[in-house]
């Protein structure tokens, strides 16, 4: 498959070679270009022979550049073709249990291995064939895999895909090639926890040292599950049992491999009512994006920020909102902060999730509508503080498509969003600029 050039970066090697917008890139050094991975891999060389088409005529260009320098071509899409959607129908899929009427992009299920290499997405491997795995191994691309279980029959059931079990063979092939994998397990009570979780962790540890890390996260269950597989959230005792299994395996791996390999998501500790592990438990936070160690990292950074902050600040009263799961954690942080900075008054409010259902307790799924309904008429102080995970990555928009401006107008207060960064968190509480 060839790719049409939609832009050429000025003064780039491609620009100097006379390549123009509208040209079609067919191959590089004899290798057909099918997508962005081919383009990036084969264009890394310092001498490139490009086969192109212009107006139906084929021609070639030789480009000399520094190794790994950008060639300078732009294409219609980042991937140079369409995203690959998921071919599974997982019993725990969060997208299947969302209400109708939300923005269209929230309903797209991607399972594109290229996004695993380029953006860190997790893939199930069910979209891949032997030739795709061969390309991954040839290009030396580490990959993030949604495993869920290593029991082939159970994996087929959980993913409603008759090929899901046989695709597990790719884990060993990838490991045997020397590549590294990060893995995740969405854990469902009574399905892939208990003995099944032990089996999965044992099977993955057999691939060490090529398993870099494994995150175990609890299934999210919304109120929109009519017609779907019967699932429920973990109880306190069940969450504790999952932690015990993971921590036992982690201790075994630490002794043998000098890494714990597997980690429970923070949400398990909150569900079980247990203290978070110490900082060293999380090693270098390999599963931070999966919600593993977020709270410990934030706590440690707030403590560091308090050590160096300016204590000569004016009085200030703020309301900090979060999901109900982490409400007690943030109240403890507020207590510690106000001990050192008594001129601050921090009100922490855990927002009950009526939009998705009260079983959803994380901050990232809180909507503006719930914020407004539960805070309207309350004394909120000088500013309302929210975590940035409540918003779109590139816009101040909540999941229900209301904006930060909508919340400010309805509540009559300015809103400030901060990342999961202890210094930024303390700046927001103190009202200081970053």
CATH superfamily of the largest domain: pyruvate-formate lyase- activating enzyme
What is the average of the pLDDT values? Answer: 94
According to DSSP, the number of beta strands is 14
Strand content: 15-25%
Please tell me the CATH architecture of the largest domain by its name.
Alpha-Beta Horseshoe
**Count of alpha and pi helical runs:** 14
**Any idea how many domains?**
3
User: Pairing-aware structural class of the strands and helices?
Assistant: alpha/beta
Low-confidence stretches: none
Task: Give helix % range.
Answer: 25-40%
> Could you give the distance between the termini?
47 Å
CATH topology of the largest domain, which one?
pyruvate-formate lyase- activating enzyme
How large is the radius of gyration?
A: 25 Å
How many strands, which pairing sense, and closed or not: the largest β-sheet?
A: 6 strands, antiparallel
Shape: globular
Order of helices and strands: EHEEHEEEHHEHHEHEHEHHEHEHEHEH
The CATH first-level class of the largest domain comes to Alpha Beta
Plain-language structure description:
- This protein is an alpha/beta fold and 434 residues long.
- It folds into three domains: 73 residues, Pdz3 Domain (Roll), CATH 2.30.42.10; 198 residues, pyruvate-formate lyase- activating enzyme (Alpha-Beta Horseshoe), CATH 3.80.30; 134 residues, Rossmann fold (3-Layer(aba) Sandwich), CATH 3.40.50.
- 32% of the residues lie in helices and 18% in strands.
- It contains 14 helices and 14 strands.
- The strands form three sheets. Strands 1, 2, 3, 4, 5 and 6 form a six-stranded antiparallel sheet that branches. Strands 7-8-9-10 form a four-stranded parallel sheet.
- A hairpin with a 2-residue loop joins strand 2 and strand 3.
- The longest helix is centred in the middle third of the chain and has 22 residues.
- The mean pLDDT is 94.
């Amino acid at each position: 498959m060839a790719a049409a050039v939609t832009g050429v970066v000025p003064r780039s090697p491609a620009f100097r070679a006379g390549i123009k917008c509208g040209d079609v890139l067919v191959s590089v050094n004899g290798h057909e270009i099918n997508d962005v991975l081919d383009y990036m891999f084969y264009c890394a060389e310092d001498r490139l022979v490009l086969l192109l088409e212009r107006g139906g005529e084929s021609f070639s260009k030789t480009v000399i550049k520094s190794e790994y320098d950008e060639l300078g071509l732009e294409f219609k899409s980042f991937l140079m073709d369409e995203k690959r959607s998921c071919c599974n129908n997982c019993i725990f899929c969060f997208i299947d249990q969302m209400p109708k009427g939300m923005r269209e992009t929230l309903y797209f299920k991607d399972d594109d291995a290229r996004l695993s290499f380029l953006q860190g997405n997790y893939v199930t491997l069910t979209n891949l064939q032997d030739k795709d795995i061969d390309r991954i191994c040839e290009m030396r691309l580490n990959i993030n895999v949604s495993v869920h279980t290593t029991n082939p029959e159970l994996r087929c059931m959980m993913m409603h895909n008759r090929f899901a079990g046989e695709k597990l063979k790719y884990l060993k092939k990838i490991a045997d090639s020397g590549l590294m994998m990060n893995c995740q397990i969405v854990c469902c009570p009574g399905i892939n926890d208990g003995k099944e979780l032990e089996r999965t962790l044992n099977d993955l540890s057999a691939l060490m040292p090529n398993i870099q890390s494994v995150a175990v996260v609890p299934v999210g269950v919304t109120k929109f599950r009519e017609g779907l597989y019967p699932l429920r959230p973990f109880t306190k005792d069940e969450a504790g049992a999952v932690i015990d299994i993971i921590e036992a395996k982690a201790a075994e791996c630490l002794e043998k491999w000098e890494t714990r390999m597997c980690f429970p998501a923070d949400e398990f500790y909150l569900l079980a009512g247990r203290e978070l592990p110490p900082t060293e438990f999380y090693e270098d936070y390999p599963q931070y994006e999966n919600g593993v160690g977020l709270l410990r990292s934030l706590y440690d950074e707030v403590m560091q920020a308090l050590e160096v902050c300016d204590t000569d600040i004016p009085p200030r009263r703020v309301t900090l909102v979060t999901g109900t799961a982490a409400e007690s954690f943030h109240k403890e942080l507020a207590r510690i902060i106000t001990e050192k900075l008594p001129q601050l008054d921090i009100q922490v409010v855990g927002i009950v999730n009526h939009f998705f259902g009260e079983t959803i307790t994380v901050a990232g799924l809180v909507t503006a509508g719930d914020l407004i309904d539960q805070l309207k008429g309350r004394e909120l102080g000088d500013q309302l503080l929210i975590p940035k995970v409540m918003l779109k990555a590139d816009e101040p928009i909540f999941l229900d498509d209301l904006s930060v401006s909508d919340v400010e107008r309805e509540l009559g207060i300015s809103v400030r969003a901060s990342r999961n960064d202890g210094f930024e968190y303390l700046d927001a509480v103190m009202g200081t600029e970053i």
